[in-house]
Amino acid sequence: MNKVLDVSGLPSFAFGQRSILWWATLGMLAIEGTAFALLIAAYIFLKWRVPDWPPGFAPPDLRWGTLTTVIVLVSVIPNALTKRAAEQLDVAKTRLWLVVSFVFALAFCGVRALEFTTLNCWWDSNAYGSIVWTLLGIHTTHFVTDVIDTGVLMVIMFTDRVDANRFVDISENSFYYYFVIFSWLPIYAVIYLAPRFV
Amino acid sequence: MPSSISRLASFDRPLLLLSFLGIAGAPLLWLVTMQTGYVLAYQACDDRSKSWVIVPTVGMLAVVTGIALLSARTYRRAAAERHPLPLLGRISLAMALLITLLLAASAIGPLILHACD
Fold first, then answer.
1. Cβ of B7 and A126 within 8 Å?
2. How far is B98 from chain A (nearest CA, A)?
3. Considering chain A, what is the average pLDDT of its residues?
4. Best residue of A32, A124, A165 to probe chain B, by most B CBs closer than 10 Å
5. What per-residue confidence (pLDDT) applies to B2?
């Protein structure tokens, strides 16, 4: 018996759970979320072992860390609008909100650079310094990756190379950006609030 | 950062930079390769030529292989240095080898698929 399935009627692209890319992104988020959780666990472990925390240093200054938190939380809005515009295949709005999202991301990168200067410790000072720099460094790596991805997608959107699959990519990029934003909140709490209030 | 914050040790700076070449440079190359491939896929399809994707990928693979070899040398040199250079040397080598493997795996796709797939 011939068991050939005709799939020519299926759409060539899809958003959300109907897209294989969405599941791939979800898998990646699971892996990266686990990595963040392990780093936070390492921080908590060290904190339990040391009665005087942070050991030998003042806690990181709140100013830049809090500002980056505000920037990423506000950037949820253009990110959501980018995702929505992409899923509506609206070229003009997608271009607009991608640019706005990109500007927010660049602002974040600038403030993040300042954040590293006010941690009040070096990466090689002691175990506390290492875990704080690693937490912030790993999160920054994720963010910079997303900035580059957003930049490339933005440039492509301003060419004549736009097709439906690019909108899927933009939608998935926005999905990933949510992860980068919301993974920052526990990291912010650990780096900035735990040394002061826990 | 206040200048009163002391650091544990002053390291062999070139060795430290070489260690971070594997730790940060190799993954960055992978990211650049992915984005380059993503953009050049259009041109490859237009020209019906996979060279647009294969040549940059192979080029990057050569560069990251160079980084892996450099990391192997760094690893040997760092082993005799003070903490944390030996650890950084090990991470650098492991990262460079992993990225070399990933880039080699990434090169398989363009070799098998057609330019417009």
1. no
2. 17
3. 93
4. A124
5. 46
